[in-house]
Design brief:
Layout (H helix, E strand, L loop, with lengths): L1 H23 L8 H17 L23 E3 L9 E2 L2 H14 L8 E7 L2 E8 L2 E7 L5 E3 L2 H4 L21 E9 L2 H13 L8 H9 L4 H5 L4 E10 L7 H11 L8 E3 L2 H14 L7 E8 L2 H7 L1 E2 L2 E2 L2 E5 L4 E13 L5 E12 L2 E7 L3 H7 L2 E2 L2 E5 L7 E5 L9 E2 L30 H12 L11 H9 L14 H5 L6 H14 L4 H7 L7 H11 L2 H21 L1 H4 L6 H11 L1 H5 L9 H13 L7 H19 L6 H12 L1 H12 L20 E5 L6 H10 L3 E3 L8 E4 L5 H9 L2 E3 L1 H8 L1
Parallel strand pairs: 2-13, 21-22, 21-23, 23-24
Antiparallel strand pairs: 1-6, 3-9, 3-10, 4-5, 4-7, 7-8, 10-13, 11-12, 14-15, 14-18, 15-16, 17-20, 18-19
Helix pairs in contact: 1-2, 16-17, 18-23, 18-24, 20-22, 22-23
The structure holds 2-(butylsulfanyl)adenosine (IVH).
The site of 2-(butylsulfanyl)adenosine (IVH) has 14 residues, from strand 3, strand 8 and strand 13.
């Protein structure tokens, strides 16, 4: 037994040292950070239980350092410690038991739970309330001096803003915190990168680190970093007994303290909270990689001391890893309801954030080629929140030469049609709308939770009904009868009753919900609502789009000679394209135009000067009629010309019209109910929402809209109010800059009442 443990320790040391070498020397790791953490944890636990197995070359004896070569150094007043990791409730229980053994009998612990921010640690020294130095953790003894850079971060007070009637800071105070990007701000940085034609940053933590270690603080100043303070490292004369009081004290002095910390009287309370935290982590405004659990009693923490570089009185609970490495066994071609081809990875099953993953998206064939992913590769797979797991990339360092390249398919594996790639698209498509797989995917979507929400009709049921030839399209669902379903295997009375009841309920869904379920390209919930609000009934929508299609055809017919003009002049070619897509390229520009003739003469000059067979007056007249016919569709705010044209084309398809007629005959609701506005107190006012509210943001949005207000995504001079929740991002700063009034959620509720 002892021998086996010693052998395991040797093996772990060897393996970890190899991975340290690959990561640091070769810069070519073959496992993820989380996989490394696990191996490290196993070795550390072994060494704690059997100290005789600890050797000087053990990676656990190494103190991590992130010091740069070219920044001045600052010595820390006390060691800046790191934290040991726990990966399971059992690990946490062991941690507590070990601590209790070191204390006098009868000791109990209470705890503080904090999110573990995924940023980089900084140490801030204040003398007489003024920030004098800021340093990174470095090697725990000495850090990089980043004072000038830290001064650019607006959440770091340059002077502790304590109030005369609140707690006063000691003459010297050294605090510790974490610098990071809020998710919203990181996204903005990436949008700016993209706008400048530069590559996106992948990792928020590394980008924050790079931003903070700039030699020129003007560069740091351009990055919207945030800092949270979570600890007092050292001070002159300050004595606090409890962690919970320390947090409150720092908050009262005016530091930006994480608002999500919680107090718990026992460890089992904390363990009960773990699943809640795990499922909420994606809703926080910043990335976290786990939780930090601290014994509340500071004297007890001091007494417990440190083990290596980690204090015994606090520990990190790491969430299940979101990334893992595994082998890519094969690539399967998936066809979606729009015909889009998604290459899907079949993987050697791997345990990832709590579930076994054996399939993952490979996005598209361009990306496969760019990343040079091959069958047989070790690949890194990620699964985060609700998103479908996807392959991040290959671990090229692990190749043995047996891997084979992946080629895009030529034919749809279901319908045999030749796959097409629309101009400018990265994806391949099966062009056949009746392709059996596309039909299945459309039906599966139509009945799903986010669409018509037909309970009891999951993908298997849809498949079974299609296979039994009971349904061939969406409308058939509303004609299903008990007898024929009962004849299928696995469908008993009760189940069939429930299914038929759900189908009956689905007949009475609002018009917008039906519209959003039809799978019209680009028509989700928001656009469906716009359409339902404007047209009130399917009938009206069909009549309008039919009329538009007829006028579009009439227009195209009248200008047909121009479309067959052969030209190498790019301006003429551009004019020709405009003429060929009148609904997208021409009508939207001239919705309220006068003097259409002369405007068109100018726009179309390059082609009219080549071919004068169609007088511009004729073009103007036909376009005038098309524009007038399409006006009600083209003037919907929030619905662009391409979407409008998708809508027209979808409804113009006779198959779709017949489908809708068939649904209507079955009693499916095709009219919008009149929604009464709750009030007009916010009529005409423009709002922006930022930060975490007590309810989902969509609810706040609905509240504003129900009272006549409008909600938009970004703050501008035209914004009337910014509603700010907890941990607001840069939008709140922008509002103050522009002098836009800031409201709390309560203020807003008071306004509408
Ligand atoms: S307390 C002795 N609290 O996690 C106290 N650390 O893996 C040690 N971290 O180096 C730190 N959020 O950079 C603490 N709420 C939090 C934290 C936190 C993130 C980081 C910190 C530390 C690392 C340890």
């Amino acid at each position: 037994m002892e021998d086996a443990l010693a052998a395991r320790a040797t093996e772990l040391r060897k393996e970890l040292n190899y991975h340290i070498y690959r990561y640091n020397v070769l810069n070519d790791p073959i496992i993820t950070d989380a996989e490394y953490d696990r191996l490290f944890h196993e070795l550390r636990e072994l060494e704690v239980e059997h100290p005789e197995l600890r050797t000087p070359d053990s990676p656990t004896q190494r103190v991590g350092s992130d010091l740069s070569d070219d920044l001045p150094k600052v010595a820390h007043p006390a060691p800046i410690l790191s934290l040991a990791n726990a990966f399971s409730p059992e690990d946490l229980q062991r941690w507590e038991e070990r601590n209790l053994k070191l204390m006098t009998a009868g000791t109990t612990f209470d705890y503080v739970l904090e999110p573990k921010l995924d940023g980089l640690s900084v140490v801030l020294t204040y003398v007489d309330s003024v920030l004098v130095t800021a340093a990174t953790r470095g090697n725990g003894e000495v850090g990089d001096d980043v004072t000038a850079n830290i001064r650019t971060i607006r959440t770091v007070p340059l002077r502790i803003p304590s109030h005369a009637d609140g707690p006063q800071p000691p003459s010297r105070l050294v605090v510790r915190g974490e610098v990071l990007f809020q998710k919203e701000d990181f996204e903005r940085v990436n949008e700016e990168q993209e706008a400048a034609g530069l590559p996106r940053y992948v990792n928020a933590r590394n980008t924050a680190s790079g931003s903070l270690k700039q030699k020129d603080s003007r560069i740091t100043a351009q990055r919207p970093l945030t800092a949270y303070i979570y600890d007092i490292v050292d001070s002159d004369g300050l004595v606090l007994d409890k962690e919970w009081d320390t947090l409150e004290f720092m908050r009262d002095m005016g530091f930006n303290v994480i608002p999500h910390s919680e107090y718990f009287p026992t460890l089992s309370d904390i363990i009960q909270q773990l699943p809640t935290w795990e499922s909420h982590r994606n809703q926080l405004p910043f990335e976290i990689d786990g939780l930090v659990i601290k014994i509340n009693d500071i004297a007890a923490r001091r007494e417990l001391g440190i083990s290596g570089k980690d204090p015994r009185g606090a520990t990190a609970y790491k969430f299940p890893a979101e990334e893992a490495t595994t082998t890519l066994l094969d690539v399967v071609v998936n066809i979606g309801r729009t015909g889009k081809v998604t290459p899907t990875a079949s993987l050697e099953p791997v345990f990832l954030s709590g579930v076994t993953v054996s399939n993952a998206s490979l996005h598209n064939y361009d990306l496969i080629q760019q990343l040079d992913i091959r069958v047989g590769d070790k690949v890194i797979v990620k699964r985060s929140g609700e998103v479908i797991p996807y392959v991040i990339g290959p671990v090229t360092g692990a190749r043995d030469g047996s891997e084979t390249p992946i080629l895009p398919p030529e034919l749809c594996p279901f319908s045999g049609d030749v796959l097409v790639r629309p101009e400018g698209a990265v994806d391949l498509f099966c062009p056949n709308p009746r392709c059996e797989e596309r039909v299945f995917r459309s039906l599966e979507f139509f009945v799903s939770r986010g669409a018509m929400d037909i309970d009891g009709m999951g993908p298997e049921t849809v498949k079974a009904l299609i296979d039994a030839n009971l349904i061939n399209d969406e409308a058939d669902i509303f004609y299903l009868e008990a007898d024929s379903i009962l004849a299928l295997e696995g469908f008993a009375d009760k189940k069939v009753d429930n299914l038929l009841q759900s189908i009956e309920n689905a007949k009475h869904r609002p018009l917008a919900q039906l519209l959003a379920s039809l799978g019209i390209d680009g028509v989700g919930g928001v656009v469906a609502n716009l359409l339902a609000d404007r047209f009130h009934s399917m009938q009206m929508l069909i009549e309008t789009t039919n009329a538009i299609k007829a006028q579009e055809n009439a227009f195209l017919e009248s200008i047909a000679p121009l479309l067959s003009v052969e030209t190498s002049d790019p301006d003429a070619a551009r004019a020709k394209t405009r003429l060929s897509k009148p609904l997208v390229e021409l009508a939207p520009r001239y919705v309220d135009a006068s003097d259409l003739g002369s405007k068109l003469s100018r726009l179309l000059k390059p082609i009219l000067s080549i071919d004068s067979s169609v007088p511009v007056e004729v073009i103007a007249e036909r376009l005038q009629i098309l524009t007038a016919t399409a006006k009600s569709l083209l003037t919907i705010e929030g619905l662009g010309p391409i979407l409008a044209s998708n809508v027209v084309n979808w409804f113009a398809d006779g198959y779709h019209q017949e489908l809708l007629a068939k649904m209507e005959r079955a009693g499916v609701n095709m009219v919008a109910e009149k929604v009464e506005k709750e009030g007009t107190s916010l009529d005409g006012l423009k709002f922006v929402i930022t930060g975490t509210m007590s309810v989902p943001r969509d609810d706040i949005k609905a509240l504003i809209e129900a009272h006549g207000g409008k909600v938009s995504g970004s703050v501008s001079k035209n914004t009337d109010y910014v509603v700010v929740g907890e941990s607001p991002g840069s939008k709140a700063d922008k509002a103050s800059q522009l002098g836009v009034t800031i409201l709390s959620e309560d203020d807003l509720r008071a306004m509408v009442n």
